Amino acid sequence: MTGDPKQLSCAEFQAQLPELIGAGGDPSTHPHLQHCPLCRALLSDLETIAEAARKLFPSVEPPDELWEQIESAIKREEEQEIHSR
Ligand SMILES: [Zn+2]
Predict the structure, then answer these.
(1) Alpha carbon of 45 to ligand 1 centroid (Å)
(2) How many angstroms separate the CA atoms of 8 and 10, rounded?
(3) Which residues have their alpha-adjacent CB atom under 5 A from ion ligand 1?
């Protein structure tokens, strides 16, 4: 741990992602994304999911449980990737 945001691992970055999005910021400007196409692809997936959620629930903010579901979906995907190697 150096405290330098450029040194974040993908897992660390992804753990922060819901907060970055939830805070109303623009996660696409995060330094980690400047050198990590994997997380850029993940972010665009998340934005697609968030967009779909906003269409389903146009008048409410996505509940915390939604982010938890997204996070656990990401973790399941990662586990599947590990097992398929
Ligand atoms: Zn990454």
Answers:
(1) 14
(2) 6
(3) 10, 36, 38-39
